[in-house]
Amino acid sequence: MKRTLLISFGALALLAVGMVYSVFHAAHDPVTQTPGPVETGRAQLHAQFEEAKKRETAAEQQDWDSPARLGLLVKGHGQRIEQLKDNKEAAEIVSYDRASIDRLQKRIAQIAEAEAAKAEAAQERALQAARQAARESEQQ
C-alpha cells in the first residue's frame, strides 16, 4: 500500500514538473508563426490610430481657443465614427472619437459661455459709462 501511494505521488510530481516546464517555455519562447492577415490588419489599424491621436492632439492644442476649428474637429470625429461604426475591430477608435467629441463640445460650450460673459461685461461697462455721463451732465 505504501509503495503504491509513493509511486502515485511520484507520478503526480513528475506530471506537475512537466506542466510547469511546458507553461514556462510557452510563456518565454518567441512566437514562431507569422501573424495572419487579421492580426496584421489589427496591428496596422492600431498604428494608424496612434498616429491619428498624435495629430489630433496637436491640432486640438493649436485650435483650443477657436470654436469654429474645434467644430471642424468634431465633424471629423463624427465622420470617422460613421465610417467605422460597423467594424468591430475599431471599437477602440470609435470610443476614442466619442470621448473626443464630448470633450470638444464641452470646450466649445466653455468658449461660448466666456464670450457671452465678456459681452455682458462690456455691455454693463457701457451702461455704467452712460449713467456716469448722465450724472455728470445733470451736475453741470
Largest sheet: none
What kind of oligomer do you see?
Answer: single chain
Structural class: mainly alpha
* Cα radius of gyration in angstroms: 33 Å
What does the model show?
The protein is mainly alpha-helical and 140 residues long. It is built from four helices and no strands. Helix 3 (67-84) runs antiparallel to helix 4 (91-139). It is elongated. The N and C termini lie far apart (124 Å). 6% of the residues are buried. The model has no long low-confidence stretch (mean pLDDT 87).
In brief:
The chain is mainly alpha-helical and 140 residues long. It is 86% helix and 0% strand.
How do the helices and strands line up, and which of them pair or pack?
Elements: H1 2-28, H2 37-62, H3 67-84, H4 91-139
Helix pairs in contact: 3-4
Features:
0% strand, 140 residues, 4 helices, elongated, mainly alpha, single chain
